[in-house]
Amino acid sequence: MKKKIILITGTSRGIGKHILTELRKDPSFVVYGSSRKEDPLDKLHIKLDVTNPESCSRAIQKIIAEQGQIDVLFNNAGSHLTGASEETSLEEIDGQMKLNFYGAVHMIKAVTPVFLEQKSGKIINMSSLGGLLSLPYTSAYNASKFALEGYSEALRLELLPLGIYVSNLEAAYINTGTIDYSIIAPKSNHAMFSKYRIAMHEKMKKDSLKGIPLKTIHKYIQQIINSDKPKFRYKIGKMAKQLTFLNSIVPEGMFQKTVLKTFNIPLKQ
Asked: Which of 51, 94, 135, 165 lies 20 to 30 Å (CA to CA) from residue 4?
């Protein structure tokens, strides 16, 4: 039986590192990890910068040269910028889009020709609840994940008739085992927003410790890899399922008031 060849982006820590470790326990998988730094102790580690299209192409070419195929791409690399739109510079917004959206697109563009030739393949994107609905102080992050959702949904429809599957994982807070290193703040402050942004930033970091365990993320990824016909959307955890449902049935104004109240942000009377 042929082994499945898998590439994961962003495996230096957090979600990517855990998924890499767990998938490598399966003898039917050959799993490549990747990050911006070299790892000479890991023969299946690739130095990869997802913001660089040439780096992405080289990574795929290396795997094909060594294995003759690639079966699964897991786009995991990303970060979570928290800040009011007014506090967030154009450069920071651009950086968020380059990593979270274009990083995934670069990898998809690099691997799709191989999948088309093979007439098979799976693309798994680490999306987010933030790609389905927006929260205050996460505008740049939401923009990057909404873009990923829209792109992926169209791509799913284009590739599905050819036997290639695109799936998105959509979770809220994920417990990476530490205060979430991927949640970052903008460099500038604004007096009218910084108080609430700082409070929300801290809440998100703490809530991540009570979030979805990494073993749950692994379970879904393993399920997609082993499925003959994986779904497009996998909403993970009660929060993702409940909030998207409420957002679809509750009046817009009521939902917005509820969100602001949740984060202790007063609404002007």
From this structure: 51
